Amino acid sequence: MSESYVPRLKVRFRETVLPRLQQELGLANPMQVPRLAKVVINMGVGDSLKDGRMLEAAVGDLEIITGQKPVVTRARKSIAGFKLREGMAIGVKVTLRGDRMWEFIDRLVAIAIPRIRDFRGLNPSAFDGHGNYTLGLTEQLIFPEIDYDKVVKVRGMDITVGTTARNDEEGRALLVALGFPFEGIPVVTAAS
Questions:
Q1: Average pLDDT over residues 64-83
Q2: Which end of the chain is more exposed for a tag (fewer CB within 10 A), N or C?
């Protein structure tokens, strides 16, 4: 990416979303308007205990989707019932910030979510009480970067969108303004 490049969603946020949210939420200062802080993508790979290739495949898929190398998460304690030992690799995660975060959210909302089969809208109540939103995807194939023929196993992931919102209503207003298609809430369309 060149030095002068600014993601399209970030430009739209600055020019149209920020002033509209400030007015909508009745905030005096534009710095009080909620913003995106980070996006965390987590993929559980419990079957890597039996087959080591599963972990490598998950790392590769997440790296292609996000453009960033994922971190392998390890078990914190042993659980005999799951044949799990402390320190075993059980998942991969990526934390996106800055321009990569804006690019990912743009691709998620504009390209990936519309490709979900039988999609009826995102759950509007999946907020954590502090304005952060988590959604679960059932397959990585909704991202066009993933080559269907090279997928070892169809695997789901959790995407957590961290915001600076003080409560769920502010967080929901921010995500609706950014184009997240929540069930029962009309999508705000703006020229990008």
A1: 84
A2: N
The whole-angstrom separation of Cα 113 and Cα 27 is 31
User: d(Cα 168, Cα 134) in Å, to the nearest integer?
Assistant: 12
Residue 27: CB atoms within 10 A of its CB come to: 14
| Nearest CA-CA partner of 123 in 20, 113, 4, 67 | 113
3-state secondary structure of 175: helix
Show Cβ contacts of residue 145 under 8 Å, excluding neighbours closer than 6 positions.
64, 65
The stretch 65-85 carries a mean pLDDT of 83
Of all residues in the chain, what percent carry a pLDDT higher than 70?
95
- Residue 107 tokens, joined: 């691709």
- For residue 171, pLDDT beyond 70: yes
* DSSP class of 144: T
DSSP conformational letter for 118: T
